[in-house]
Amino acid sequence: MLFNSMEFMIFFPVVVAVYFILPRRAKQFWLLIASYYFYMCWNARYAVLILFSTVITYGSGLFLQKIKETSWDNLRKIKYKKYMVAFSFILNLAVLFYFKYINFAFDAVRELFRLIHIELHAPAFDIMLPVGISFYTFQALSYTMDVYRDEIYAEKNFFRYALFVSFFPQLVAGPIERSKNLLKQLDKPQKFEFGRAREGILLMLWGFFLKVVLADRIAVFVDTVYGDYQTYQGMYLIVATVLFAFQIYCDFYGYSVIAMGAAKVLGIQLMENFEAPYLAVSVAGFWRRWHISLTSWFRDYLYIPLGGSRKGKIRKYRNTMLVFLVSGLWHGADFTYVLWGGLNGGYQVLGEMIKPLRDKIVSAFNLHRESLGHRILCMSATFMLVDFAWIFFRADRIIDALRIVKSMIVVKNPWILYDGSLYDCGLDSRNFNMMLLCLCILLFADCCKEKGIQIRNVIARQDGWFRCILIAGCIWAILTFGIWGPGYQDVNFIYFQF
Amino acid sequence: MKCVMKRTIGCIVTIALTAALLWYSTGLLERKESDVKNAPFFEQEEYDVLLFGTSRMGYGVYPMELWNDYGIVSYNLAGHGNPMATTYWTMENAFDYTTPKLVVIDCYLLSSEVKTHSASSSIHLSFDAFPLSRNKIAAVRDLLDDDDAQNREAVQDKKTRSEVLWDYVIYHSRWNDLGKEDFEPEYSKEKGAEHYARVIPIEKMEQTPMERSLEEETVSIQYLRKMIEECQDRGIAVLLTYLPSSADELNRQEADRVYDIASQYGVDYINFLKEDVVNYATDYCDTDCHLNVSGAGKITDYIGQYIVEHYDIPDQRENEAYKKWHDDYRDYQNSLRDELRSLESLDKYLMMLSNEHYTTLIEIHNPKLWADDMYCNLLTNLKVDSDQSTRDTGVLIVQEAGKQVEWYAQSFDTQQSVESLLGRLDWTEEEEGSYQVYRDGELFYEVTEEYHPSADVRIVVLDKDTMEIVDHTYFTFQSELKRG
Description:
The structure holds two protein chains of two kinds.
Chain A: H1 6-21, H2 24-40, H3 47-69, H4 74-115, H5 133-148, H6 158-166, H7 179-187, H8 194-227, H9 235-265, H10 283-289, H11 292-303, H12 313-331, H13 335-353, H14 355-364, H15 372-394, H16 398-410, H17 429-450, H18 455-460, H19 464-481
Helix pairs in contact in A: 1-2, 2-6, 3-4, 3-5, 3-6, 4-5, 6-7, 8-9, 8-17, 8-19, 9-15, 9-16, 11-12, 12-13, 13-15
Chain B: H1 2-29, H2 33-38, E1 49-52, H3 55-58, H4 63-70, E2 74-76, H5 84-95, E3 102-106, H6 120-127, H7 134-143, H8 153-156, H9 160-165, H10 168-171, H11 180-183, H12 219-233, E4 237-242, H13 249-265, E5 268-271, H14 293-310, H15 323-342, H16 346-352, E6 358-364, H17 373-381, E7 394-399, E8 404-409, E9 416-420, E10 423-428, E11 435-439, E12 442-447, E13 457-463, E14 469-477, E15 481-483
Parallel strand pairs in B: 1-2, 1-3, 3-4, 4-5
Antiparallel strand pairs in B: 6-7, 6-13, 7-8, 9-10, 10-11, 11-12, 13-14, 14-15
Helix pairs in contact in B: 4-14, 4-15, 5-7, 5-12, 16-17
């Protein structure tokens, strides 16, 4: 069930209404049933996989807690705790590997052997990727690690823990919540609170705007150009690549905001997943603002255990590259994603390496790092670097990405920017202009966020009549200007595949 | 408590405002084809005859002519490509608003095993104009749950149901396509019928013995039976038709099968494949056997005559309750005249002259016209005896679509005068490069520079009652005879 589907428009109000009517003790069960139903709408059989992951991590959590409470000496405790963590990780990652990476692994091995002229006949598995498997697997694994690190006590209530893994708003595309934050909240169901529900609904409306009005509209243009990049060359590809940066942002940010809003209506606060990432002034800054829940997961559970920045610059560079290569692989079982991750890691390593030079230039030219001009320059440079990497993320194959880059450099056709040719790429002039207008709204909202202004709080302070008109107008505008319905296929959220 | 009240009112106002906005934009954004065709149906509470079928029926029978010629109050609810199941549900929905005395059902597509046409526009054309009702929901549930059609795009997605019940689901993306016609829609003046002003000659197939007969109890036959039974339960008479077409093997199988069904239920049936009513050279507007204005006029007349003779359908022309229908007919005729004035090619123009409200004067300045079979056929369609004519330059006068025809050979080089159906006509040239035509001594029409005095064919169309000029136009040979 997609958030931007008729089914969800019925499902969600029913879940909320019943949730607040039910007695406190029954609320968790209801949410658990609703979450499993939500997931099973895609494929009922794959609910077994969440259950498997839930049982393994729940059991390993309990065992870790037991080990901690034994009178064994520390060394022995650590040894058995590590066994338990390894057990949980291996089983969960094995499932993830099988469903997501096995064909990729076989293909990679086959290609490797082909290089030395050995033809390998590896089997091809016809496996459908379970929706959101990377998200809930990582969320469940974070619980194992948190218990291992004594950051939380193991959850004894299986149903509450199962709800933690499967909580429907963030089940299939995050944010990847931490047990410290979510389990505690699930333990204490909130009563209905009007202001909070209103805030949640405003968040959801913002998310729907980002997804159905903006991301799906941009997708029409980007898919047209990237789908036929041999026809749409040069400037077409540059425009499409810039727009893709916003498409993926609006798509994923939209989902996260709808998830946050839905959870908020239910009285649960999920973490912010995006903080105006395209206003970052460095690639490292971008990654502190983009998909925060995943970036922080890698930081806490991979980068720091690898030594982080504590063991010298070379180790730091290695760890950074490793984290980003794995992050690329997490996003998809293809070398395009690995290269995308590598590019982002490379930017940061290179940035660190030339930092003294950059500092010297700033000092020599007496530049003010906080000046608007300097910030805009850095933002633009960051955007260009990040956007360049998105080419590899979007392209179907590395060779396609390279051809696209070549076309961008070689083909000179800037006139298409003003001769109306851009209106022939899937969006007519009115839809194209609507997209530009919506991008301005997004930019305005991000600037407000950067300045610490929460627009929904500003709305909340307005008179009731104004809020009524605004909310009604927003719903109408999203329904009217959104890309949805049988005229268009409901477009899946891009991040479902990860 | 006060706070709760305020919030509750706030929520209600927000929901009401949203609903109002959506209600307004649903009406504004929807495609107007269905409303244009069927919205006038709801203006009248009582109809004597309802016409159902596919687009062949839609293009084939004109309720406005049934009204004018026979005083029959009818509406044509045929839809494009509607299999019988869709027709059944159209009829059920129509019965929510009226109970006619007679239902005419065309049985084309009787062999069809599907319930809806593959193009979703077809089902929208039939149902968008109908307000949401139990029967509309039942129709959508039945028609869009067609297992046999699961592979077809339009019904593959179950959401098609929602798009029919609330068409905003599909039409909301029309915001960038809104025009004046969306804000001020102009409803059809044809009481559900449609017409094409085009001529495409088709060939009637050779009537060889049929290879097989249609014996299967197809889905469409089942629904036809349901329609007849439903009508008989309600005391409504049924007339089945099979409108004229190229009469291919399948057409003939379908048309033959209707005899069995008609006799089984004791209802009348007109098989136009066996009637010599239309002219295959002049009466079709496309190769899909849709009748043009000329062909539909003939079929309408035939059916009107049949209804008057076989059913107790009152002539409502003097009934005060239908006073407005006279105005509607006038509007309808005016729209046909507007269309006539806009036609660019002679073949379409000659076809449209089959209207019995016109008396036409045709000046033929170029005998090349007679060398073209198409024009000859169209003139024959106006009862002009083109074989016996001199096939030269001259003047043709056609009264009321061929009720009376006169031909005067004329060179146009010299001043001439003739005694005609229209009175005494004098062609005079007062200035070089232009000429005048006087009728009984009064200026009838003047051919100045603007009217291209050297045109190959000139036509003056008159209202048969008032004898006022409806149109004065001329055609010159390009690749064909075109206006201008």
